[in-house]
Amino acid sequence: MAANTDGGVGRRIAYYRSVRRPKLTQQQLADMSCVALGTIRKIERGERGVTEATLEAIAAALGVDSSSLRTDRSPAHTRVRDALPDLSAAIAAYDLPDDGFVRPVQELRTAVSQAVTWRLGAQYSRIARELPDLLTELARAYHGAVASERAEAASLLVSACRSADAVAYKFGARDLSARLIDLMRWAVPESGDPLLTASVAYVRTETFLAARLHAAGLRALQQAVDAVPAPSTSAEAAVAGTLHMRAAVVAGRARDDAAATDHLSEARALADRVREDVYYGTAFGPDSVRIHEVSVAVSLGDDHVGRALDVAREWKPPKDLPAERRSGFYIELARAQLWAGLSDDAFESLKVARHIAPQHTREHRWVREDAATLRRLKRADSESLTNFAEWCAAT
Length: 395
What we know:
By secondary structure, the chain is an all-alpha fold. The chain has helices at residues 8-19, 26-33, 37-44, 52-62, 76-92, 105-120, 124-144, 150-170, 174-191, 194-210, 214-227, 234-253, 257-271, 286-300, 305-314, 323-339, 343-356, 358-362, 365-377, 383-391, and strands spanning 2-4, 50-51, 277-279, 282-284.
């Protein structure tokens, strides 16, 4: 069904395409959004409506929140929150799925891969809309699989749950997030894949971070590191490296400088052995480790903040890194800049984060806190700061 049909959406798409730097042609927008050029032209001329999926693909290519393009201006975050009960219902009977249609495994692989792409791109509204039905179908596939197919069905279910968890965790539904993680832990032994098991341990750390149980989180991560095979392949090195990256952040939150430094060192050494890529659903490589250096420095605070600023002066995350990770870099950098008294720079970093991944930035607790602080510090400043603070619901 078309999301908008009155031509206003087309005018907004044309406007954002023209002001983007560098400016995009209709062909470039079509290529980046995987939408046919003829469709783009008709939408901009107001000759056809726009489905939700197409609108979000175009918004992602333009680097704006899809609500900026809608006629009704309904915010994406509201639609995501409204969909959370559907995600909850989808996993309520994971062990007792109803009868229903199940696509061939190749089609399920494609659907799960697409969900992973949405997660890495911080396209949470698309996940919230599509994942409830996919999770239900994957539960049917898992329970209906013959023995030889059970491992892959379990792996697909775990990966889909991780994408759903990204929405639950980022939007503050911590109980739902914990249930999804428990479902991952229930299904992953059937996969028989120790690297997938390690990736679930990586995700599980969210539970410890939310509860501020840093010591328990470090113990869980260390157990996961010990269980990973001695790295002899790129995938093994990358998965072990992601665990060390996450452990460094947890240690940083615990203000354990020595442990954070040790884990970063381990992650850096492993990153030097692989190319930057996504391994088992997590981006890893030299660039990802550098981003985590900033995160750890901000977590440790005090004298370490200068390290975050040093990294940013020397380096910026390349555009081929996942949007969620790049936006996270600028969110962390903004906090360091704010603490260093660089309020103008901090606001610029927040705006860059918003441009890269609007939904991720808007729902990040630190963004709301820092935008509120900036607003208090610069009461007489520009309207753009006020608009930004209102956009992310800073108080």
